[in-house]
Amino acid sequence: MNGLALVGHQFRYDQKAFWRNPASVFFTVMFPVIVFLILAVVFNGETIDVRGGVEATTYYVPAIMSLAIISATMQTLAMTLVIAREDGRLKRGRGTPMPPWVFIAGRVGNSIVVALMMLVLLAAIGGVLYGVSVPWDRLPAILLALVVGAASFCCLGIALTALIPSQDAAAAIVNAMLLPLYFLSGVFIPEDQLPSGVIAFADLFPVRHFFDAFFDAYVPAGGPAVSWDNLAVVAAWGIAGLLLAVRFFRWTPRSG
Amino acid sequence: MSYGSTEAVRGIDLEVNRGEVFAFLGPNGAGKTTTVEILEGYRRRTGGEVSVLGEDPQRAGRDWRERIGIVLQSGRLDPYLTVRESLDLYAGYFRNPRPTEDVIALIGLEGKADERASRLSGGQQRRLDVGMALVGDPELLFLDEPTTGFDPSARRQAWDVIAGLRDLGKTVFLTTHYMDEAQRLADRVTIIAAGQIVAQGTPEDLGERDAGETTIRYRSQGQEVVLQTATPVQTLNELTSKALANGEELDGLEVTRPSLEDVYLELTASSEAPR
Is the CB of residue A254 less than 8 Å away from at least one CB of chain B? Predict the structure, then answer.
């Protein structure tokens, strides 16, 4: 098989393993849906004071989409790669003629396909249950934000594995980083209820910029669809993650 | 060959012939895994020359990896893939893989082909692990402590698989800390202890077992007497003549040659250096 066919081959098996893994399916697929439904029920009918006023349900569709994309990429990659590394599965793979980039590309492809699927699922749920219309005319901007965000958060997830010493620590470290950022960045708590200091702090991290960019792409309320400055910050984080990943990613178990 | 500040192995000189099962035997911490990982290309050495299938593992590429198979000391499997899927996944990595059904038969998992790895017993998982190293139909196979932690029946099954590899004409580099495993499977054995080779040979003549001292035990007036001798015939003759002359019986008289296990324990104990 040539390189690309081999990536496809790897991707097929990564998909099988992903859908059979109850933890992946719960945290990546079910959790965002559940969070969206809870927030939509709680805040339904309210108007959130951003971009001149947005329906709460309209606000939460792109918010939870951002969460789902980060979960499918950064969170899924960091967790499954650490588990595979500590199991010795990465090391075993390195002992075969498979080029390492093929393996990583298969995993990244898996993450991006799942992210895309979550986008469709959340758009459908938001549309059917709460009449949040899908902004078809903004599709190019949405896909651009998705690609930049997914690629960047994949790089960050791979880089993060270097900080995670064991399988047991994986979920704790990943959630300790992401959960507070979701709260502080306006993903869970509507942005108009957060003090400006909190937003300023959240602006130091990529989650907030990605949410901002994705929101601009998805919600026609205000401004241009492509938020170049936010996307640039996300991409800069992604490049930093890529450099760290290239330097510090390891194929052999840390323990044992 | 060292890592960290401790030299793990030094002055090791090994030669493995095509088509043989070579056992690298030693206690835990002797440097077996360090050595085998250097041979597999996982670990960089600090000195010395290594050639595996004509190439330096440190620099060897894809073509070389097509020709070797590796079973790591502790390698778990993807719990969510079945036996057949795991093997098919790996088959895609090689240019000329052995058909998956062949591999399944070779490792004796015909009845479990569609079972997920998480539902296999420890012994079955290890056999699948060996199967994944066989998918590429390698000329040379590395097995790092393939039966550690196994119950006796799982060990026996693993041994049957390994013995089958020799019949396929594979070269097998086996590391183990079980004497009986080396004895049962290997054509040649090298014993390593504290990073140095202490004995080499066939399982039969290892450690010059025939030249070892014989132990004579008996009881005399309620006391246990133990004699070590290099000339057992002479010693026994003197002993029994004296007893006969005194009209004495030698209770519990026992004459033993050192077992392979004794040779192994003695060799590895005497070279135990402070680490």
Answer: no
The CA distance from B75 to the nearest CA of chain A, in Å, is 5
* Closest CA relative to residue A162, chosen from A57, A241, A44: A241
User: How confident is residue B143, by pLDDT bands cut at 50, 70 and 90?
Assistant: very high
- The answer to whether the Cα torsion of B105, B110, B114, B120 is positive or negative is negative
Strand, helix or coil for residue A94: helix
CA distance A183 to A199: 10
The nearest CA of chain A is from the CA of B136 a distance in Å of 8
- A98 band by pLDDT with thresholds 50, 70 and 90: very high
b (16+ CB within 10 A) / e for A164-174: bebbeebbebb
> Which residues from chain B sit within 8 angstroms of residue A89, using beta carbons?
75-78
Distance, CA of B61 to CA of A96 (rounded, Å): 10
Beta carbons of A17 and B94 less than 8 Å apart: no
CATH number for the domain whose boundaries are B2-208: 3.40.50.300
* Tokens, residue A160: 């993060």
Instruction: Check residue B1 and give its pLDDT.
Output: 39
Under 8 Å CB-to-CB from A183, ≥6 apart: which residues? A189
pTM: 0.86
Of B166, B37, B168, B156, which is closest to residue B102 (Cα–Cα)? B168
How many CB contacts within 8 angstroms connect chain A with chain B? 67
